[in-house]
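Tokens as discussed.
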């Protein structure tokens, strides 16, 4: 056995971001702003959502992007560029082709950037180690540091106006930056403040519960205090020439805990000695006031507990004239593809078991066209099969199925199967549904016959295993493999569904969290990836152990590639790795994408759709899936055939086969005398995967028959009995 380690620098490669949709709130909002008619704002973690605001009455989500593992502190937007201040410096991102973005440059400063502002071709940065850095950004691809000045104070925020910078923190500074290579501190005062805004020659300082102060700064060497108000102010901005003052509040909700809300008000400074409240207060959600641009202000929320995004519009007299609200962001859970149609399961409300289903048609541009939205109850574990979407309904402890023959009009077909145990996942192989049921010592494997998607209750079978089942079963031929954490994994002979038989329990050095089969091999996620040869499916032989950079919890096979979901339990960092396993004894990393909090993954063509705690991420994986020439797997049997079911039959029966390689297939039906009765499949080409071949008895007399199945010139046969 060979143990290989993922010895590479954890830079993303082979998996290219295309778009992000359905971006979800998750805390940690740090700002936003406008690039033309596009609104960009931070929804959760480091995800930036993009909305089209060209219609003042409607906000349309066009996508988004993820900033990865940057430890972001704040954002600034200047038309075509996004400036991201983070703990290791400044990143400049080109916004010309939204929602697609490209990185223009990175300015590294290990102490970190706390806040920034812009004047034409200069960027003014205040740093975590209490300095003012001025950058020449006339060439955004190569920013040049012009100066670095020790401020001898702890800065919090900065505003640049004309040839002057205003800095607040534990002191109030005014800095002349007419010569950016030699900035000159003109004024220093022990006036601790938390934010600042400048309108004409008036500087406004926010002091939280201690209100605001207004200064005339027309002569920076001789400040004149004009007014002071007791209006609670924590963040300041401006629209037209009016001041926006923001105040956060919090209250305790009995269901959600501490909730942050806010209000903002509009002040006229036509007489700066007597600031006048002319509009507001208006309610928002969260702790952050977003940016204002022209006559627009963006803030999260419009009512108590609502997690919408609101754009407020203001007239030139400072009065609010209208507002537009985006649809409430949703939290996606599962994602499934069936015949080119996407099915997305989402929570109706935060932390709710009630969920609904979005039905959408994807396109190559990385967007989805919604065609239906269907209330589902409390489903988990979506799995498409034979024109149905099967799922486990958590609230009622049952497996149900949704008819999706017409994707635009799905409907619950029937209550499928009830059981008093928790379902850990659903797998289909041939005409059978396999589910791992978790209920302590009563845990086990459930097998249900589902020919043509129809359920026969009298044909359900259960084998008690009595271990902690942690994922869906994996099926290879006549054997089911079940991950059981500290108990390793179990092997069950399912060739006779009426007599399920536990064959073996394989102990592993670490917890077995998940597993999957492909091309004659078993892949076990046990912190590492353990690969077993299934030449003898009752006694798997460990041939390779792959050691990823962090702990592996989930594995999913797609043809010659394994998708690995890895995370570091201490830092809760997650990532997706694509491993080329065309040669299972020598797997190679072909793609890596970091900073993903994975919920579910689906692949369609060369696009990978990933639901995470922040929404739906779409990636192009064509590079990862073509990293090296595919090798035809060396499998003892390249086709695995289930017995026809039902047999005997009176309307139709199905034969299921699992191909380890692409193959040409013919299926013929013969009577007992050897006379060919029908050509079911005539030398058609089938790709790797599981396929169902249906034989109809509409024109058959009662009697004995047999099928002749030819796969790449190899012959298989089975007897059938037809009863009218």
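Sequence:
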């Amino acid at each position: 056995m060979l143990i290989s380690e993922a010895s590479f620098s954890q830079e993303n490669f082979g998996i290219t971001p295309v778009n992000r949709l359905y971006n979800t709130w998750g805390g940690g909002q740090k700002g936003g702003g406008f690039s033309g008619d596009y609104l960009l704002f931070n929804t959760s973690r480091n995800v930036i959502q993009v909305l089209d605001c060209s219609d003042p009455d409607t906000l349309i989500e066009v996508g988004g992007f993820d900033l990865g593992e940057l430890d972001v502190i704040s954002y600034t937007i200047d038309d075509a560029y996004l400036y991201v201040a983070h703990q290791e410096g400044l990143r400049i991102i080109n916004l010309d082709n939204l929602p697609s973005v490209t990185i223009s440059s990175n300015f590294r400063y290990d102490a970190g950037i706390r806040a920034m502002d812009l004047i034409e071709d200069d960027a003014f940065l205040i740093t975590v180690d209490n300095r003012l850095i001025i950058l020449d950004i006339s060439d955004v691809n190569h920013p040049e540091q012009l100066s670095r000045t020790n401020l001898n104070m702890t800065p919090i925020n900065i505003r640049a106006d004309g040839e002057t910078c205003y800095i607040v923190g534990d002191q109030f500074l005014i800095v002349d930056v007419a010569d950016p290579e030699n900035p000159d501190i003109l004024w220093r005062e022990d006036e601790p403040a938390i934010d600042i805004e400048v309108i004409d020659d008036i500087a406004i300082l926010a002091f939280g519960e201690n209100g605001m102060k207004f200064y005339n700064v027309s002569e920076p060497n001789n400040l004149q205090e004009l007014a002071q108000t007791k209006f609670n102010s924590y963040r300041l901005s401006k629209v037209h020439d009016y001041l926006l003052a923001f105040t956060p509040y919090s209250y305790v909700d009995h269901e959600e805990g501490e909730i942050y809300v806010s209000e903002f008000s509009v002040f006229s400074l036509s007489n700066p000695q007597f600031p006048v409240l002319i509009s507001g207060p208006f309610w928002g959600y969260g702790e952050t006031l977003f940016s204002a641009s022209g006559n627009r202000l963006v803030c999260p929320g419009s009512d108590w507990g609502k997690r919408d995004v609101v754009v407020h519009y203001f007239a030139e007299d400072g009065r609010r004239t209208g507002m537009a609200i985006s649809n409430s962001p949703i939290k996606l859970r599962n994602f499934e593809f069936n015949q080119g149609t996407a099915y997305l399961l989402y929570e109706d409300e935060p932390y709710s078991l009630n969920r609904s289903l979005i039905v959408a048609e994807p396109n190559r541009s990385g967007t989805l066209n919604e065609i239906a939205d269907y209330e589902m109850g409390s489903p988990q574990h979506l799995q498409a099969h034979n024109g149905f979407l099967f799922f486990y309904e958590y609230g009622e402890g049952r497996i149900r199925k949704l008819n999706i023959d017409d994707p635009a009009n799905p409907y619950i077909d029937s209550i499928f199967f009830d059981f008093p145990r928790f379902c850990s996942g659903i797998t289909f192989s041939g005409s059978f549904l396999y589910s791992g049921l978790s209920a302590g010592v009563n845990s086990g494997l459930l097998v249900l016959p589902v020919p043509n998607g129809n359920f026969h209750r009298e044909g359900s079978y259960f084998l008690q295993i009595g271990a902690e089942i942690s994922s869906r079963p994996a099926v290879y031929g006549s054997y089911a493999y079940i991950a059981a954490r500290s108990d390793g994994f179990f092997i069950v002979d399912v060739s006779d569904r009426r007599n399920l038989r536990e064959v073996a329990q394989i102990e592993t050095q670490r917890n077995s969290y998940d597993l999957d089969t492909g091309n004659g091999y078993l892949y076990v996620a046990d912190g590492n990836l353990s690969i077993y040869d299934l030449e003898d499916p009752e006694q798997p032989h460990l041939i390779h152990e792959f050691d990823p950079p962090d702990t592996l919890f989930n594995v999913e096979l797609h043809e010659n590639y394994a998708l690995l979901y890895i995370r570091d339990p201490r830092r809760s960092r997650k990532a997706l790795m694509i491993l080329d396993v065309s040669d299972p004894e020598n797997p190679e990393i072909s793609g890596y994408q970091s900073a993903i909090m994975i919920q579910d993954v689906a692949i369609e063509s060369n696009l990978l759709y990933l639901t995470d705690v922040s929404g739906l991420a779409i990636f192009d994986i064509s590079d990862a899936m073509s990293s090296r020439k595919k090798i035809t797997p060396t499998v003892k049997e390249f086709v695995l055939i289930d017995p026809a079911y039902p047999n005997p039959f009176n309307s139709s029966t199905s034969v299921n086969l699992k191909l380890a390689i692409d193959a040409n297939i013919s299926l013929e039906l013969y009577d007992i005398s050897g006379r060919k009765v029908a050509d079911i499949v005539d030398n058609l080409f089938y790709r790797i995967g599981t396929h169902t071949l249906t034989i109809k008895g509409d024109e058959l007399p009662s009697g004995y028959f047999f099928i002749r199945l030819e796969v790449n010139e190899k012959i298989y046969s089975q007897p059938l009995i037809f009863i009218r």
